[in-house]
Amino acid sequence: MRGAKSAKWVAAAAIIALAATACGGGDDDASKDKGNGGSGKAGGTFRLGITEPVSIDPYNAQESEGILVTDNLFSGLYEPTADGQVVPVLAESKQVSADGKTWTFKIKAGTKFSNGEAVDAESFVRGWNRVAQKKAASDVAYHMAGIAGFEDVQSGKTDKMSGLSAPDATTLQVKLSAPDFEFDTKTTHTVFSPVPKVAGDAKNAAYNAAPIGNGPFKMDGKWEHNKKITLVRNDDYGLKKAKLDKVEISILNAANSANLEYQGFQSGQFDWARMPTPQLKPAKAKYEPQGEWLELDTNGMNYLLPITDNGPLKSAKAREAVSYAIDRDAIIAGVFQGMQTKSTTILPPVFKDVYTKDLCTSCVKQDKAKAKALAKEAGLKPGTTIDIGYNTGAGHEEWVQAVAQQLEDVLGVKVKASGKPFAELLADQQKPGATGAYRFAWGADYPTPDNFLFPLLSTSSINKDDSGKVTGDNRGRYSNKKFDDLLSKARATKDLPARNELYKQAEKVAMDDVALIPLWNRTQLRLVNTKKFADVKMDFHEDPNLAELSLK
Amino acid sequence: MGSDVERLVMGRYVVRRLGQLVVVVLGATMVLFACLFVLPGDPVGQIAGSDKARDPAVIEQLHKQYGLDKPLVVQYGSYVGKLAKGDLGQDYTQGRPVTEILAPKLLNTAKLAVVAIVFDVIIGIAAGVIAAMRRYSVWDITVTFSTTLAIGVPSIVLGMIMQWVFVIKLGWFPLISDGTFNSLILPAFTLAIIDAALVAQIARSTMLEVMGADYVKTAVAKGLSRPVVLLRHILRNSVIPVITYVGISFGALLGGAIITETIFNWDGIGLALVTAIQQNNNPIIVGVVTISVAVFVVLNLIVDLLYAALDPRIRLA
Hints:
The structure holds 2 protein chains of 2 kinds. By secondary structure, chain A is of the alpha+beta class. Helices cover 31% and strands 19% of the residues of chain A. Chain B is 76% helix and 0% strand. Chain B has 12 helices and no strands.
């Protein structure tokens, strides 16, 4: 029953999102001056709480909180929609060469940064070079790794990527070092924002604290660390203007933020809030009937990450046995109070062009007999020890214990669940000789299946250093030539439907090998003040769509 | 003449205590450095708050930037060198100077602690006086009962209940501090209440002791009015142990505000410490502890000096 209900919610949200995109694309010109496209009124202040971001400057904005601010201060070539599509923002057209190595973007003429400077092709070149520079030490620079000359800039040999050029004010040409037919999708990340001349180098304290951008909002004052960030509407915005006058973002401490957000919503001080897990049920009972409850399976997944080259889960059959032995429904009902959705794929359901429900047959329903039979075939004998590592203090203790209990009951194995601080867990996963399984979660940086499949499962993403430490994101060490070949083929395919077909095939290969054990989707729950605001939705980054929502 | 000698003794004493401060701070940073850097896991190996490992090129650059590529002894040496100039280094997540990050937080914590102390003293002494003056009455029993309760209830429970009642239900105070005195009241009260209960108990027992003293009986026999006896004779003499206790507990308040700061989102150094520990943000951890140690030592010195000033029988040596 619950499953059906959430599915409906997701479907409803997807339809709303589609409708919104259709509007956004169509009536740009009509609403240019008044910033008043739909039924909503202009004005109002939207208030919410976040935790302290690492950065709000595009050079290093990385988590949902930082991107909330950066995304509203800057507009790039393309942007992602909540349902995994890519729509143009400043790009008027794109052209990719037959070899997939040269991209040419036409940029909308006549838009400006909030300091009056023109947004031209050169401002993109400037912004991208600024990120790639060695001294920037940007955590998100790797998104540009495909651009020719990136290595030379990263190593400090030069400070301009040879692959970037601006033949004229509205033409941006990007040469890549390897074919990539999805480069346009990557530019949806805020790291690909244009910056004005005043931005200077990446390490520019004044600009880092009050970036001047070209987005629907601009900074009101500077970032008051651990206190607040205030945004006001950019009335000179060259595209569809925002309706809100102001956005007040309070910065809350991470140890108590969900609780403070929820209390703030209850007392009318916030218009958007997360909730602490124990409060989910009463909050839903109270706010869902009032239409203030928002539930969405977003672009993220939770897995058990098996180490596939060593230890008890080296064989695919053993991994399948583990997957069959887990009773996901019981854990979702018992631990998560029914507030999560079971996942049966490697790719999240928001990527609806490739989503193949129940691809993971062992995920659909617990099957003790099959689990035992597979374990026997795989030589996973009762009494074998399986290590499961997880990070402490993030609410994982309970479900990890439940999984451990189920594996012990069904397979007769001994599960050693060890909780560690995050940094320690990461070091543990990376070290040579890692074994067993780990708690693992992943979210895509841009809406493409490639952003799950390549980093998590391709052989080249294992990337061991001299000591044998895994430095890439494929920490399960999964390696299958058939998968790698399908992925390379997909990457070399220009046509989107054909490419998606190859991604689907690759996902199936990895799923047949149980390279990852899917557990549940990333279900995001929010409270939204729908009494005061209309058209409030959760965007691709799990933030409110500040540039589109309006007063009722 | 005598006062010159005293001043000299006192001056020497202060200098010696400040010398101890340097030794204590050095010792604390050394122990911390050793502890933090034998912890497994690269402090800059992971993107803050995510499952993702940093790019190896970025890790290398950060190691160089923060001097993590050098041996521990060299790192410690350069840390102490900078510390002498008042530089606490740069933090690992945002790359901002630690002093710039911690200065406003230290101020916030100090504000909270000062207001808490004021509440602490007012509530504690008032309750203690009432209990002592009306010994074994309903008042006394109420004070004894409620102070025992206050000592027993953890501040996290008290804080959250008060937040729910006064912020969510009644809306008297802002949830998120807006810098006004109003937003200081609840956190300061939460922080003060446990100490206030102890102060009340100390005040009550010392007052009862003083009330039985001969000079109080004499004063009463002389026919002085009750308020005069209370203020001039009883309270004045029984307040000394209270002041000593409060002085020492001020230092503890500075460090012990972690829970209160978390509940009320008060941006102080306690909260900074918790966040830094979660992020392996070592420069902030070392910075907070260094500052706390220094503040604690200085406060203890001030209390000792005050103590000597209040009670001439105590000599500084």
